[in-house]
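Researcher: Hi, I'm a grad student and pretty new to this. My advisor asked me to get structures for two proteins we've been looking at. I'm not sure of the right format, so I'll just paste the first sequence and hope you can take it from there.
Model: That works fine. Here's the first sequence with its structure tokens right after it:
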Amino acid sequence: MSSHLGKSKSVSQFFSFVLTCHLFLLIGMIHSSPPENPIKCSSKNNSNCTITNSLGVFPDRAICKVSNAIYPQTEQELIAAVAMASMNKIKVKVATRYSHSLPKLVCPDESPNGNLLISTMNLNRTLSIDNSTMIMTVESGVLLRDVISKAAKVGLALPASPYWWGLTIGGMISTGAHGSTLWGNGSYVHDYVVGLRIVTPASPEEGYAKVRDLDNNHPDIKAAKLSLGVLGVISQVTLKLQTLFKRSLTIVREDDSDLATRATTFGKEHEFGDITWYPYQRRALYRLDDRVSINKSGNGLNDFTGFRSTLTPALAVVRVSEETQEATGDANGKCISARVTTFALRISGFGYTNDGNLFTGYPVVGYQNRLQASGSCIDSSSDNLITACAWDPRIKGNFYHQTAVNLPLSKVKNFIEDVQKLRDLLPEAFCGLELGNGILMRYIKGSNVYLGTEEDSIDFDITYYRSKNGSTPRLFEDILEEVEQIAVFKYGGIPHWGKNRNLGFIGAINKYKHAAEFFKVKESYDPSGVFSSKWTNQILGLDQSGVTIVKDGCALEGLCICSEDIHCAPRKGYVCRPGRIYTSARVCTDINRVDSDSDISITTLVEEEDLGFSDM
């Protein structure tokens, strides 16, 4: 008894320490240090440059070197840049303000005449808003934040959007960014686009570059709306908006026993509904989110905790804690941290407030522009990194993998049941992903663009620990690798183009019925491949070398699927083995881990009861 009480006291102290750190993360700072420009150049004339993603590291950890970067401020300057590159056969890619696509979509191949980045940072103007027609035209570098706020000022709203507002309109539609709804036009931003202007290479007779003005009646727009940047540079986007409306949302926490069945119908019951799933805790958070009368009282605000500016010392403590848990194999500590994290988020309303200041409970009622997205960590001037966005690569903060796969509703039930079977075998293996707030499930309505999801689907979005050292295996690596391979291969899931590790894109293009139509437009717009790269050719199936990189340790970061032990980390006890329930999977398994040891999860639950948090 005394031994148990001593252990309970020890865990209580650790719990209190971790909770204190997470409460610091809940505090929104007035100031912040917005992320830097992802383009870094060693000379004042923007030459000898590098570019990376928002995390500072691409999935393959390669450094992308670029000869020159330019920042056009007008469409004419953009045309001149494309013409110069086309004439000189220079490889080009387009960069956005914060470079949030994790794969190497932004990295141009090196060529004899150099390579070029065209940044849309200064193409950031709202060109027109017509309140009577509800039509808005913006330049491609305008942030989602500004689309939302400018529209709201004239009583209009974009009905669907991602939850993070630090994305540009050009970047969103080019990678298939989305919110969560099966209603109306759906959740893809590109399905609210009614026109766009794109600058593409052209013949010498046409001056090496031309502007193509496309509307919804033009057949090529099905390729241009979601193009991965391989057709040219989008200069302007025209959106069809709606009259500004109000929403009412309530987040309900339930056990996950009927999640597999309920998930297939929930999106049809609530216009903006989504689900956050905590497999280890056997809980699911259902967001009941619908339009309400504009007269319903409430001025709610979404300032999501994870997108706020945060004290960098608190971020460092949380990161060091997880690194220590990984290094020592402390599954119990991860499970406690996960429950603390999700508890802290829940009691704070996930950053929602009822009046812009305080969260007093559900429902939260407010206007669409105040609830649909957030990202306050980019909204103020620098404070010398006293605070920052949690993933800013300049600090010791979040560093992660992200797996995001769309599954048609017809396959959702079986996928969830497979994950639950894995969870039942080894519950503590899922604590790590709950530190990233679990599995986010957003609804996607089928779209008619060539590279979009064709059926009504759920996007399963999982964020989980990544080591700063690419040769270091993760705790319970095999379990999440099996989840990933079940989604991608057993059920034929479609990867989000702007997320995922390399293996998520294996055979991806074969899952699109109209890929051939996309290739016809690509050949017409850019026959010389000025805007193509090795990576885009690989994910589009045009480079037979494929997306995988086979080398020692390649499976540890999803660069390959292991077929030999050396693809894992055999010297550290991680070897290639079949999956537990999906035996066609090949995963890196820790042979030193005692699979039958279920005391970890049982102990965790007992200790939390002692602490009074058994129902967190």
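Researcher: Oh nice, that was easy. Here's the second one.
Model: And its structure:
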Amino acid sequence: MATKLLLTLAICRLIVTVGFTFNPNDLLLLGLNGKLSVAPADLQSASVDFGGVYKAEPMAVLHPATSEDVARLVKAAYDSARGFTVSARGHGHSINGQAMTTNGVVVQMSGGGGSKNKMLTISEKFMYADVWGGELWIDVLTSTLEYGLAPKSWTDYLYLTVGGTLSNAGISGQAFNHGPQISNVHELDVVTGKGELLTCSEKENSELFQAVLGGLGQFGIITRARIALEQAPQRVRWIRVLYSNFSTFTQDQEYLISLHGKPASQKFDYVEGFVIVDEGLINNWRSSFFSPSNPVKISSLKAEGGVLYCLEITKNYHLSNADTIDQEIEILLKKLNYIPASEFTTDLPYVDFLDRVHKAELKLRSKGLWEVPHPWLNLFVPKSRIAEFDKGVFKGILGNKTSGPILIYPMNKNKWDDRSSVVTPEEDVFYLVAFLRSALENGDETQTLDYLSNQNYEILKFCEDEKINVKQYLPHYDNQREWRDHFGEKYWTRFQQRKLEFDPRHILATGQKIFIPSFNPNIATW
């Protein structure tokens, strides 16, 4: 009774704040199987994200038990005289408030809310898994491995939701071969901004299907995804080699991703890399590769501009073909031009490799270094301009200090579908450059939030001044003009048309700051 009273009071506050003409008891009478909560703990959790920079004030949090719960809530927002905003939240790993909403309702897709949203169906015959949109990828992996299967494409961190990564793209070192996660989806169930629950695929409601993939939550909330699977390997040979010359490093990376059409025995399964501008980083980040008693010194390797580059590659295998894996790797490594004697190798179970970042997370949590601001910046950089980016950013703006890994690896554009809502550089090969840094208040000015945020601005300004046409991944902009520039006129027009069709009242994902809700401009989070 007390909970119902609190919820009624919260909805009444919503009416006063937002001004929509909606009976407060109507939300209570939606027939939800899940839970509509105004508990302070739920509101607090939904008011922040991993970025730790923005804060919102949601009025309520829905823990849905079914897709129909989500549809009923969004339909109520769409049908009400003035409406209210609805934002889907996964595991809270947005960086700039993208999954937040103020004076609206957050749909908490992951976590509790009833057993129905935990159902996961696997077809061994057709090699797919039907997954709730709020399921974590680590749980998808655990379930599919019971059948000897696994998804083809991953993100580096598995404690993210299926719907969350598919709303962006979902990338890791497998993307050169299999494409991003959005290229490995057969079918979706989506709740549009009109409150319609629709099944969509290449053949059914295809425009919605392509819009939602990489659509930043603007066109619908993904409640189910049919994910393509493959036979899961048992073990991984994980290799790192070092470079002091950037041109040689990128040539080798580009050569390796050019092998994507070759048989499995003639290519690596994963190609990534990272930039090392700080000697402390090379001996601490994922330090299992490097011996503490014999640390790698940047200065001893004659790095150009004080910067080293690490190529990270893996070869998957089964115990049945373990006797050939060494020879396959040797043939591939002979084609590369890394620093002699800089090869570091380890061998581990497939699941341990995929879940490698979680182990780093646990270490950081134990030191109180996880729940800090994360002013991350992720960029897609055209291959033709990556050398200039290296000179201006890695060897220029960054100096010799950083506070987190800087990833860099190329991808093949032909593995991406231009019909999706993601925009990438207009070149056959482009690079992800990801500045995954943490802001710390430890007395070092170069690790403060203000310093790192200003440095991000410097990087973007450098690209603008040098006319390097980068595209932000997990994009963040403060106004619609910047969003138009991000998409370009052709894709912005398509994006607008899709918004008009699937979320005409601009109810969904207002934290992205792309469209202002048509019913009340003051409700937006900017």
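Researcher: Is there anything I should tell my advisor about the second?
Model: You could mention this: Residues 463 and 469 are 7 Å apart (CA to CA).
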